[in-house]
Every structure is written in structure tokens, then in C-alpha cells.
Records
---
Amino acid sequence: MGFTRRTLLGAALGLGALVATVPAMAADVTLKLGWTTSDGATDPYAIAARDFAAALEAEMPGVFEVKYFPNRQLGDEKEMIEGMSFGTIDGGIITNAVIANVEPAFQLLDLPFLFANEAQAHKVLDGDVGQELMGKLRNRGIIGLGFAEGGFRHMINNTRPVAQPDDVSGVKYRVMQNPVFLEMFSSLGGNPVPMAWGETFTAVQQGTIDGLEIPVAVIQANKFAEVTKYLSLTRHTYSALGVLISKRSFEKMTKEQQEAVLRAAPKAIAAQRAQVADNTKQIIEELKAAGMTVNEISDPAAFRSKVTGVYDRFKPRIGAELMDKALAEVN
């Protein structure tokens, strides 16, 4: 990759030595970067933010200051997207399903069982399909810098393990406020409950909902093992995290600074994906140790057969040409 976390650490240490001998100077560009989950060491949103800041520092030392705003400090993801459109928020690490509420073509990436593995997802996201999707955000005042790794999403609940489609039946799952997820869980016989992220932990804790569906790193970082019993590794949707920046904030930068941002983002995303992959196996073992019952599903095809109608229903919204292009790549 040519750009490693060790390199970044060395650069950071070198910078620290320099700061000790040279009076501190204000950065030329300050970017307020928000996300809704924790600032934990294994949280994929937080890792993306820190790696982006480190990559910017490596590109133009001392020029960028990235200020972190985790835990919904800048609002829920919908509010952050609106803020970026208006230029009142500089940037954010945003869940793909929420971006899809602004630009329906992004619903493509939330289609159930679209990707077989992470490598396949990366190929599509980093290629023509991903670029076409991000290009659609410019008309909405947002520049998409790339897709970081959220990881595959899995089902957690307090009712029963999910081993076959019938196990989803009747269970109240919190889903994002996104029509693809509503249709997906309805097709599987579940009772999807659209809910903002900030309300979810308390809703599970109080029994208002039975469970939810999120990547394992988010389960751990946000302590859902304390309030849910069962983790089923369904891998029903790959969670792409949009690394986004306000077009207004971007256009305030010099050409050199803009180019540094565009170079830094893919390097940060590569580093973030590698760390998330390293963390995932360890996190599953830690969730088991914390008391969660973990199971794999033995027949993914049985789940796929239940959700084929979701593809047909959303093809007009996503765009037939774009969907066909993505399906050709994954098949």
C-alpha cells in the first residue's frame, strides 16, 4: 500500500518533537468532522476519522486541523448531511443507508446479500459504480471522498438466534430510516421499526424493540452486549461508510489543499479497512466472552430467496443501468 499506520505514527512522533521546539501555529484549515457512534478504539467510524486526519497531516504537515465530534455531537446523520449541504458542517462519516435518503441511487449498496465478501465490495465501491454514486452528491452540495468500511451487518436480538429465515418472523428489529431495510425485514417476516440511532440503545434496554442489525465493531463500541443476548452472523448487508465533506468547505481551500484532501482520503480508507478487518475476529470473541450467544447461518441462499423482490421494487429508484452494472461486477 505504501502508506502504513506505522508510517503515520512515525510522522506523528516526528511532528511531536518539532512542536516541542517550535512555537505552535494555527492550522490554515480547520475541519469539524462528525459521526454518530462512539470514539472507541475499534469503532469503524472513529477509525475512519482518525485515519483521515493522519493522512491529511502526512500530505500537508501543519496545514489541517481535524476536530472530532463523535456521539451525535453535530446531530443525527440526516442532520449532518443537511448541514454539509448548507455548508454549516464541514464533514462527516455517514452510514450509506442514510445517504440513500438524500440520493436514492445509494440504495443500491444496501440491497440484501449483494456482496459475497469485503474484497468484492471494495472493488465495486472503488470503481466506476462507486464514483458514479459519489458524483451524484455534488448537486446536493456534498463531495464524496470515498467509502470506508463499516463491515457486514448482522442481527442481534433478545428473542432467539437467527439460523433460518423463519427465525426473523415476528421479531421487532430497529432499522435505519431507509426503505430498503424496511422492505428487507418485512420480506423476512420481521417487524421493522425505523428509529434514529440515538434512541436505539434505550429502546433495546427497555424492551420497546427486540433487537437491531449492525456490524460487530459497532456492537462492541456501543456496548450492545450489555442489553442483547443473541448475535447471528447473517451478513445480510455490507455497511459502507461515506467519507463526505461539504462542497462549500472544500471550495474555501486552495487548489493545493483540495488536492491534498483528494489524495488523503483513499489512503485513509485503505488504512481504515485494514484495521477494521484485523479487529473483527477479535471482537467476535470478546462479544462471546461478554455473554452473547453467537451463531453462523448455514444456508444464506434460503435468506436470499426471501428478499429477491426487494431488488425488483427498488430497481426504478436506483436506476436500472446502475444496478445492472453493479450486478454484472458481483456476478
Note: Confidence is low (pLDDT under 50) at residues 1-24.
---
Amino acid sequence: EFDEKLHVSKLPFVASPDRPLLRGWDAHPNGLYIGVVWAQLGPNKRLHYLRSELYERTGVKRAIEDVQALTRMYWPAYGCLDFGDPAMFIQSKIEMVSIADVMQRYKINLMAGAVAFNTRREVMAEWLQRLSDKQPAFQINDVPETLMLRDGLAAGYVWPTLDEGYVTRKVPEKNEYSHIVEAAQYLITGLGDWMWADTIRKAPARPGGSLGWMGA
């Protein structure tokens, strides 16, 4: 369903501080990789992806600290809603804590996106086909920092196949694009009812962390 001509914004989307910043996370339970995307839902219910980053073997704490630093640098006055891979709530057999537990120490309150790939696939497809004010409801800023997300949606996030072209699995293979695309999926499936809540406009911000009211 992804069409670069439609879903890559010709004009840059400028985020508004009166609405929350959205972050999507995909991670291995032991922190071998962490994929992160930043987005915002506009008042017209159009979802704009602003940035993506992939961390490989950097360590959980270092990746979280970098995400917070980037958030404070580019969106200093914004509160955040964070959605991620349910596997991030699983305790690491090495550290004996989950990534979600570590994130709590940094004032990041993670909410889970959908577990099932089919659900994530269907919700993403619905958004890609949705219109708002006759414009695509799903758009990505045309900046270098979103290139991996765009390339993943265009062709990089794929089902593994045999030489004959037959599909061998019912879920995409894990590759350099899958972590970023799946971070976007966890964000988009985790949004749910939050996207319609007026409360999010009034929530106090924790620069780099999640919205203050989320921990209540």
C-alpha cells in the first residue's frame, strides 16, 4: 500500500508543541538492537513521521539516552507518548530487568503496541489508504533521518522467499529495515484511543521523557 509519491511529504511537516510527540520503539529483549521513530498526529488526524534511528549493539541505556537527547534537541518543549514492542516488557536473562523497566528510570512510560504481525500489517495498511482533507493521512517527512523508514516501506521490509519466488514464512525477515518499520507499526497500533483524546493537549511535558500524566 505504500506509495512514495503519496506518502512522502513534499512540504516539511513542522511539529506543534501543543500536541504530544509520539515515539515508537522496537527492541530485542537483550538490547542487541533498538529501532526508534518519532511522529506527531496533527489536529486533522494526519500522522506525520519525523525521524527514525537504529541502534545496534550500543547498549540499552546509551540508546535511551541518545533518544532523549535528540528529543530535547529538536523538540525541547514537547511531552511524549511512547509505544513499543511487547517483548520490551520481558526480563532480560542477562540483566534480569526488562527494557521497559530501564526506560522507567528515565521517566519513559512505555505502552505496548499490537503483538500479532497480522494486526500490525492490517492497521498500517488502513492508515496508508486513509485520507484526511483529501490528503494522505499517513506521511513521512522527506529528510535524511527518515530514509531507512521510507526504504523499508518501499522494498526493504520483505518476506523471505525461495529462488522460485514462493513465500516461505508468514512474517517478514529480520533485516536492517525491519526494526524501524516495526517501531512504526508499534506506534501506529498503540495509538488507539489516545489519538482522539483531548487530554493529550493539556498534559505537562517531561523533556525527553513521557508525558507527566501517563504515570498517574
Note: Helices lie at 4-7, 60-74, 99-105, 117-129, 147-156, 178-191.
---
Amino acid sequence: VHIVEDSEVPDFLHGNELIFTTGIAHSGTDWLKDFAVSLKAKGVVGLVVNIGPYIESVPSPVIVYCEQNDLPLFTIPWSTRIVDISYDFCRRIIGNEKHESTVGEAFRAIIKDPDSLKNYAELLSRAEFGQKSSYTVISVCVISDGVNVTKQAAQTMDMSIWRTIRSSGHRSTLFMHEGSLVAVRQNSSEADISWLCAELEAVLKEPANVVCIGVSHTLDGLRSVSEGYEQASAAQFMSMLE
């Protein structure tokens, strides 16, 4: 969540941000259309306009642009404190990160011992990972000058990786395990997995990095994730030898 008042959209935006603006740095609303266009180009997820002394209403061209370009547009009254809204969003984001971490821990446990599924079935069901769904496991390792730098690379590109993982709508989770970045993908086609691998390689690729990816067969049931991980890990290891 960011508050941005400058019409020149700052470079620190990476994408996936929700932007608030009051218009305090401007006179009138002629700037708002170009502002929305710039935000869309940066990959933000929404624009919230604070209606008040600086922006009395959102001009029609801005509304039309946002509708035509899938940029969610909201207004809030001046009496609503932006700090209260941003606090609530940040609290939800932190809660979601804790949830993702818990889901990752569940899958790590299942990989080590498929019988432990009974301890995590309810949690994974709430996270919409069905027991009878099909799953594909992807294992990614990033090597730089002979050193495994997967964790550092994943942390640096964390938001970009999650945006890639979630962009196609398939239920997924992502976690570190035994030095590799592991993705578990639900009910995915071969074409979707090929696309995802290409996107992950593009996100993690740096001039000094070699990205090694292994992919399992698509297997049925949550218990199969352990077998899928073994397949993906073996394929990743073979790719490192090439």
C-alpha cells in the first residue's frame, strides 16, 4: 500500500501495489488520467482517490480508462483516514504471509512423510488444496559461480515470483525446501506448467545466474506431492549436470 502524490510515478513501485492519492500536489484533475495510465504500466493492482478539497470528483475519462484497462478504481471520502485503511491492508498482508508460510510448512511435512497428511488435511482444505485434485511439483535451483543462491534470488524477486505464480489462477504455493524453491501447482495443464517454468526462469535469471528447473509428472491426490517432489528434484539435479 502506497500513497503517491507526484504525477511522475516513482521507480520504487514494483507492481502489485494499491495506490492512494489525494491530489494535494496538483491543481485540478487534468493530471489524473496520465497518472492512471502510468500506474497501469507499473502493474499496480488498484487506484484509490481521496475525494475532498483537492479532487472533488473523478473525471469521466479516468473512469472509462480504468474500466477499459482492468484497473480497479475506488473513491473514499475525505473523512476517512487513509492511515486507518492502509493499516488494515498491511495487517491483512501480514496475515496472508503467515498463512502462506503455514501452507508451505504443511507441504514440507507431506514431502518428508506422506502419512503426515492426516495432520494437515483440514488446513490444506481451507486453503483450497483438495485431496483428490491433481498436482504438479516444480523444483528450482539458482546457481551463481558454482554457489547455490536460490534463497537470495527468491527473496530479491519475491513479489515478482508470487505475481507470476498467481497470474493464471491455478491454486499454488511456493516455499523453500532443501536449498530449492519448490512450487506445488494444482490442476494444471502441460501448457500451463511450461509457461510457468519459462516465467520463473525469466524472473530469476541474472547475467551470472544459471536457473535449473525440474518438473514432476502430474499426479493425483495430496499424498502424491511427496512423489512429485522426488521426481522434480531428480529432474532438477539432472538439469544441473547438463
Note: Helices lie at 32-42, 60-68, 82-112, 117-126, 150-156, 158-166, 190-204, 224-241.
